[in-house]
Design brief:
The chain has 280 residues and is α+β, with helices and mostly antiparallel strands. 21% of the residues lie in helices and 40% in strands. Strands 16, 17, 18, 19, 20, 21, 22, 23 and 24 form a 9-stranded mixed sheet that branches. Strand 14 (137-138) and strand 15 form a beta hairpin. It is elongated. This is Copper amine oxidase N-terminal domain-containing protein. Keywords: Signal. Pfam families: Cu_amine_oxidN1. Residues 29-131 form the Copper amine oxidase-like N-terminal domain.
Length: 280
């Protein structure tokens, strides 16, 4: 009888501890395991994740106003308040069954409610939270991955970016290009020190479909500024080349910085990996 009681007690302890063990929880977005310095955890039977996971991997903009957290996308806006179950969803008040809270200088929010509000599908299986976000479509083709290529003095690197939110965000920035211009007389991966007004390629962004075929390729170029200023008058500093349409546009430095910030976030969160490196 004592052995039976001990066995039942041990089973009960394991059953109780398992759901609340935050270390066993894994978060996947678009089949990618999300890297985070603070693990998701369960509170009141709801999976809570650090706010940064939402802002960087689901494509939501974040604003703070006192103790309020404002999350917004093109389609929806959610206003949460720390330690309050009341949430404002697209202007309408609703009640959560758990509250956002602050822990170890990290703000935790309920992942299912927010993800589904922003049009994502959420599934929970075997201690893994799976979130599927809305994919990017270009010319009616679903984008599976983004290949980013850049060259150095000797060789080049190709990185593969996963995650629909990253694809959507980057493509949106590329669409904010400036005026259309004529193609430069000289442009390549290499610096040309003989021709004023020459451009060298900063990076190549290739949006790929399910068959790994390019749907749209967008290349960024920078003006070779190794010449006197008087020889460079009238030349834009940055250009964007739509390769498939062979069209050239003025691009801006702040757009380039936004692209780089997204690339950095994708790398830090596990959505970007190197698939080729020929740098010597």
């Amino acid at each position: 009888m004592k052995k039976i009681f001990t066995g039942l007690l041990l089973t009960a302890v394991l059953w109780t501890a398992s759901p609340a063990d935050a270390a066993t929880l894994q978060l996947k977005i678009d089949e990618v395991v999300v890297k985070t310095d603070t693990a998701p955890e369960v509170k009141n039977n709801r999976t809570m994740v650090p706010l940064r996971v939402i802002s960087e991997n689901l494509g939501a903009q974040v604003q703070w106003k006192d103790s309020q957290i404002i999350l917004s996308t093109n389609q929806s806006t959610v206003i949460l308040t720390l330690n309050s179950q009341t949430v404002i969803k697209n202007g309408q008040a609703e009640q959560l069954d758990t509250t956002p809270y602050l822990k170890n200088n990290r703000t935790f929010v309920p992942i299912r409610f927010i993800a589904e509000t922003f049009g994502s599908q959420v599934d929970y299986k075997q201690s893994t939270v799976n979130i599927a976000t809305k994919p990017l479509f270009i010319n009616n083709q679903k984008i599976k991955a983004l290949h980013y290529e850049y060259h150095m003095t000797m060789g080049g690197v190709i990185q593969e970016v996963k995650g629909h939110s990253y694809h959507n965000a980057m493509y949106k920035i590329f669409q904010q290009k400036g005026d259309k211009v004529e193609a430069p007389k000289d442009y390549s991966w290499q610096l040309n020190l003989d021709i004023p007004g020459s451009y060298y390629k900063l990076g190549q962004y290739d949006f790929l479909n399910a068959d790994n075929k390019s749907v749209q390729q967008l290349d960024t170029y920078s003006l070779n500024q190794a010449f006197p200023d008087e020889l460079l008058k009238g030349y834009p500093t940055l250009l964007l080349h739509d390769v498939h349409n062979d069209s050239w546009y003025i691009f801006s430095d702040n757009k380039m910085q936004s692209i780089q910030q997204l690339m950095n976030a994708a790398t830090n969160n596990g959505f970007n990996k190197i698939i080729s490196n020929t740098v010597l």
